[in-house]
Give the backbone structure.
Amino acid sequence: MDHELIDRVLAGFLATPQADRSSGQIELMAGVICRAAGAETALATPEQLEQLKLHAAIKDLATELGDSNHYTHLVINDKGTVLVSTALFLRGSGHVCASGNTAVEVMDQIKHEASILTAATQQ
């Protein structure tokens, strides 16, 4: 059981004003806490499913671009909105980051930014 993670998640949740807590945010927090406690959860939240889709897509793109480093995560912004986010580190070219509501939206941003960055470093 990851007590430190559970404490951090609960503290972050309790620091969010009640009026700013969305049902998606509450589901996400509950899911993270259950997993950290080793408990089973029935279903993944829509945001977690988008994160899994994004992770698979960014992994494929990273391989296509020469096995670049990458990561994905869920972000809760200052308004309590849950977003999927990713960063892709291109070898010798820098990195690009994007976040949005869906994996498709984020991948469109990442592909666009990566093409600009790659073109700029090849000149």
Remarks:
- The longest strand covers residues 82-90.
- Residues 83 and 100 are 5 Å apart (CA to CA).
